[in-house]
Amino acid sequence: MAEIIxxxxxxxxxxxxxxxxxxxxxxxxxxxxxxLAEIETDKATMEFESFNExxxxxxxxxxxxxxxxxxxxxxxxxxxxxISDLISGSKLETPIEKTKNEVTKEVEEINEDKTISEGVxxxxxxxxxxxxxxxxxxxxxxxxxxxxxxxxxLAEIETDKATMEFESFxxxTLLHIGLNEGQSASVDSLIAIIGKEGTDVDKVLSSLxxxxxxxxxxxxxKPSEDKSIHQKRDDVPLIKSIETASxxxxxxxxxxxxxxxxxxxxxxxxxxxxxxxxxxxxLGRIIKRDIDNFQQISGVISQPPTPKGLESITEIANSQMRxxxxxxxxxxxxxxxxxxxGVELDMDNAVDFRNQYNSIPDTKISFNDIVVKAVAxxxxxxxxxxxxxxxxxxxxxxxxxxxxxxxxxxxxxxxVVKFTNEQTLPQIGALVKDFxxxxxxxxxxxxxxxxxxxxxxxxxxxxxxxxxxxxNQPNSAILSVGAIIQKPVVKNGxxxxxxxxxxxxxxxxxxxxxxxxxxxxQTLREYIENPLTMVL
Length: 536
Description:
Elements: E1 3-6, E2 16-22, E3 29-30, E4 35-40, E5 45-49, E6 54-59, E7 66-68, E8 72-77, H1 84-92, H2 100-113, E9 121-124, E10 134-140, E11 147-148, E12 153-158, E13 163-167, E14 172-177, E15 184-186, E16 190-195, H3 201-211, H4 261-270, H5 288-293, E17 295-297, E18 300-302, H6 320-335, E19 338-346, H7 348-358, H8 367-381, E20 387-390, E21 393-396, E22 402-404, E23 406-408, E24 411-413, E25 416-417, H9 425-440, E26 454-458, E27 477-481, E28 485-491, E29 494-508, H10 514-529
Parallel strand pairs: 22-26, 26-27
Antiparallel strand pairs: 1-8, 2-4, 2-7, 3-6, 4-5, 6-8, 9-16, 10-12, 10-15, 11-14, 12-13, 14-16, 17-18, 19-29, 20-21, 22-25, 23-24, 27-29, 28-29
């Protein structure tokens, strides 16, 4: 839904504003916190911040144009949204524009009735956003009796959109606080009085009571009734409202310092010259973080670099394979009580065995083929591991079908080497290589991925030394194989360089007990560390 942005009241005496510069143009995407425009008031030129998100659909006041407060400034909404009614409506309901003579006459009439001492400034609840109807004092930064300078942060005001710092446009002594921390009041309600020290506050409050049409501020003030954006007011407010910009003051082209009020305050306290700090906020604005991160060592000014990256995302629709992986692995992890057993094996004999085997013409095997063959033989010795859990029974398989996990572009598939224990090492190597190739081309047949009784997952080729896997149900166990690495080991009392590999067995505790899993790994160790036993 489109949001109407009106000319904001950026100072307590502002009646109209001039758009000095637009930072956005029609069609641009607007994010909450973006600086929409630079607006000249009767006090200063200030940046105007957006509290809405969407596309900038309409600009009502061009650069150099001026208009009274609450005049249509811009419209933000969804791209392509019909805003013709909003534009035509705003023209029909233009706020009453009073001539300077009329305003002066009304002010003079009010002043005739006032008995407020000279130098006393009435601070009212500011309108800190275009939709704000009431505000809550989150925190007072000054106490009654404190000295207040122009630019000091009086309080933190919580609005319907954010909690913002409220800056004083006056200097003097804080004589009265009309709204305690945690209390709320409608816009234009009395929240404080600033004036000369020793001023009779009771007399000021009495004078305000006699000339104000609004009731005293109470702890629980009900929100004012919703009014049209351009509703005509029947009277002139008798108490002026100090209103801050919806964005903190910071640098512009007329050499103003680009800094938030809090940053200015901290800079003064720490004796830091704001002119030497590079701001990390919008348009180079100096914010609290920049003051905190600033360093000045031995007269040499240094400031850590501020990252200026762009947040972005890519949304990828879940493929059917990814959905299946998510479903099956979630079911396994949350239904089967996993436990893990890890061992480190001596691979020196396996390395020599593979080198000798591959010296045979037209023969080539991998370390993974050796592991798969060793697993198959070990499963024949330990049928408890070669089993599956069912609601009323545990089924032990007398055949051995080892599944080999293969990574593909969309996820993971597990082709199955049937009757693995009966296959030779070259046969296992040829099958696994063929499965991997066709898996990446998405040419595996369904029956080639069914019927596994145990699974092997190997990430050693990626340099992973150790990891754990999720049991591939209905299997009861899965073996994770790491990379073979060289490192110092102790052999016969001497430290030598040896080849080692780490294996981790993940088991379903409903089927495979810890001791059973440990015995399986002992047998597996014997085969892998002495690979000749697999071929004799």
